[in-house]
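Troubleshooting: if your tokenizer reports a length mismatch, compare your output against this known-good record of 422 residues.
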Amino acid sequence: MALLFVCLVLSAWFSGTETALMSVNRYQLRTQARSGHRAAQIAERLLERPDRLIGLILLGNNLVNNLAATLVAVLVLTLAGDEWLAIGAGFLTFVMLIFCEVGPKTVGALHSRRLALLAAPAYLVLGVVLWPLVWLVNRMTNAALMLVGVRVTAARQESALTQEELRTVVAESAQLIPQRHQQMLIGILDLDRITVADIMIPRQEIAGIDLDDDWQTILRQIAETPHTRLAVYRGDIDDLVGLLHLRRVAQALARGELDKEMIERLAREREPYFVPEGTRLNVQLLNFQRERRRLAFVVDEYGSIQGMVTLEDLLGEIVGEFTRPDARSLPRGPERGPDGSWRVDATSSVRVLNRLLGWRLPIDGPRTLNGLLLDHFGEIPEPGSKAEIGGLAFEVLEVDDSSVLTVRARPVEVAPADSPVA
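Known-good structure output:
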């Protein structure tokens, strides 16, 4: 009886530790191993060849299970006779199912890391003792698997996570990572999904100096601009001269040398930096670093300037806005009304609105609110037109001949469920 009890305990051990080792979190295990935890290092080494580990566990499990069945048969024949063999076998099956299979495997799944670390040194020793037998079993098993086209050496478990898997891990680790850090990690992972065209300042909002303007207009622009760098062009932004740093302007103004010729000369000192509109943000971040630039003009396939992207815009996708919403991101607003609605400039970027106001407007289509509304209506809407997009109710306030200018937005009110009919 004592030997039978030992066999059942060993069977439970093999079943529970098999589940624990196969389901343990490999990244937690690797972290402990790199910190010098000896048992974790052993477990990680065992899991490098799961075929050998499984062969060792099943070999031991089958040996003790067969021995337990033999002992039960001997006990039944000795104590009761052969007519009780079926009852003894059924009782053993029930006991092993509950106490040696389902129960231990459940414990192994619930406490996988603790049980795996406890079992790893024992399996290391057992693997050395039973190495010839385990080697023979693995060779025969691998040969059988090759007959059906499975190569064990090519089927080793990959430890690297795909980007989508890593995104899921970050999204589900809310209890372990502060929400702010979680958003930053997701922002980094999203960089290769977003292009510079998605976050650029549209060309009509690029602050610049037109050298064809009169001198007083140019001086007023320089005095009133909130920016440190201004595009300099002639007549149209596509005829770009260069980029003017206001620090150089201040120096020339202090010397009394500032005029149009001086502005043009200062703007030409460094050639403008152009990037295609389809450039991914992760690529552009490296480009900014390599070129030692903080600003780039975004061009389409015809070389026409579509907008401007800055290093601050790019980093804002990771860490959020560095400053409060300004004329760059939200030209005239948004303004919060007393009723909780928002008055929004329709030229605002959809991505910026989502980030700053917590909205969930679709970002896989038009990049501006104006484009989103035009896509929804299929025409230039009349003032007063209404639409529901992304859980928000929009009312068109102002339009011109080709676009929507301003809208009012408020969350869609969910109507209460109808009361049941008596």
